[in-house]
Amino acid sequence: MRRKLTKYAVPLLFMMMMILLSGCDTSMMVLDPKGPVGADQRDLIVISTVLCLIVLVPVLILTAWIVWRYRDKPNNKAAYMPVWSHNTKAEVIWWAIPIIIIGALAVVTVKYTYALEPSKPLKSDKEPLVIQATSLDWKWLFTYPEQGIATVNYIEIPEDRPIRFQLTSDAPMNSFWIPQLGGQMYTMSGMDMTLNLQADEPGVYFGSGANFSGPQFADMRFEVKATSDADFDQWVNEVKSKGSELTLEGYEKLAEPSSSDRQYFSSFPEGLHEKIVNKYVVGKGHHHGGSEESK
Fold first, then answer.
1. Domain extents for the chain?
2. 129-288 maps to which CATH number?
3. Sign of dihedral through CA atoms 45, 48, 53, 54?
4. Which segments constitute the Cytochrome oxidase subunit II transmembrane region profile domain (predicted)?
5. What is the pLDDT of residue 291?
6. What is the pLDDT of residues 202-220, one digit of tens each?
7. Beta carbons of 265 and 245 less than 8 angstroms apart
8. Which of 284, 266, 260 is nearest to 141 (CA)?
9. Average pLDDT over residues 118-124
10. What's the mean pLDDT in 244-254?
């Protein structure tokens, strides 16, 4: 009975794993990047996976072969060598290859870690667009200090232009993530974190909070729309003309724990982001790669 369970357990577990992974849309988004940061992260994932498979695949194949070749069965003709204990050539091979691969993996990881420093400005001829992102219970507030507008659960950005996100939280810690553009980065109370991203082409991209933060954390999803410069300017003008004003009282109401539909605000209180950052700390808030103006 035990042998039968073992025989079918591995294939069954493998099938269950494939079914679960097939439902992870975000895993496919990560492998379909639409920006330079996402592309570098995809490359790191692929390179690391290939290097690991160089060791993993032969080990799995040899394990399966050994189990099959030397299984217990009547009239087994396999050679039996109870005194065999050492083979220099074999030990050099199975120790040298993993050491080389680990070394290569370390070099690749260090290179991409420095290249993908979140606060490092992206190379571009265009000035970055600043968007201040605040995680709330259970919604996202995005303020555009240069344009003077704000949105809830929606971001619109110009394509092929660096976006400098300034991230903080007025609620439990969360994680800001746009899988096809890059990320994740934590949002924390009293912290002003910087994340530089860019969309290389027009499109609508999925964004979400990637950290459990309460019963309605699944509602912390937002849409990111990349458009041309002209369409972005037109959208800003529409928000200014049609959106409502976000006051301090309105913000306090918005920050109360609840999910929210998409909202647009034609204006917001000056220095709102800085007030949120400094709300829970004595003195100045902590900054990671933030601009001097935000400090």
1. 129-288
2. 2.60.40.420
3. positive
4. 22-120
5. 47
6. 999 999 998 888 888 888 9
7. yes
8. 260
9. 93
10. 96
